[in-house]
Amino acid sequence: MVFDCEFCGSTFTTKGNLTAHINNARYCLAMRKTPTICEGCEKTFSSKKALTAHVKICREIVIKTLRGEVSELREELSKAREEIIRLSTLEKEYFAIRDKPHITTTYNNSTITKLKTINISTITPFTLENVRERLQNGEYTYDQFICGLVGIKKFILSLVVKDDEKNYATTDISRPNFHRLEESRQWVGDKGARFLSQVFDEIAPIAQKYSDKLAAENTVAVKQNNGSEISRLDTVRTRVKPVYYGLLEPESKERSTLLADVIKHIRPHVAV
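^ that's the sequence the OP posted. Answer follows.
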């Protein structure tokens, strides 16, 4: 059995040793001469050990601690509300300009002449609404997705070129500046091919669905211990990875690389 000193916390194997300690130990006696005060309720205790035990249940200290936690939570809540308001404002601004055409007001005569030569007689205008419709019709297929960069290039090109018609064009192949056919059948500027990045955003949910399908196929192959299929799917994932991240992460390096690759691919087909 162990006996603890209630004043200094020292431990003894017999009650007699504890009693002798309490009556004679100078450091323990000195500790008892200095009262210990609770910072919460200001009650006085004869030992540090007694104070420590009291602090755990002191109502004033508990209330003070809770008030501090509540204050921190309120501050975090206030910051969260400010962030929600900021994001809401950005969202409204985004949707306000999302489909608004960027009108080029500095067309020179040469540019206008070249644009007029483009055959647009029956081609569908290049708008987000029409891109969504094509996606809903399943025109960006799973087979194109697992082809990686080749597949996304093929799909984007199918959006802008039909036989000898074009709804997306560049009159200067030395720069990534394009012109896009609007619903009004008028050409609007797309400096830096920013509209293509918006198209990627529309494709992203489809890419996520296809990625999930690819993962499910891999799970089946692993369960069946099908080595050749696992190897094939590993190759597919490696091929798909940069395109997948380029579509799903707008601010990523992969998005910039994907945009540059697509521009390089379609430019010869849409140059006038």
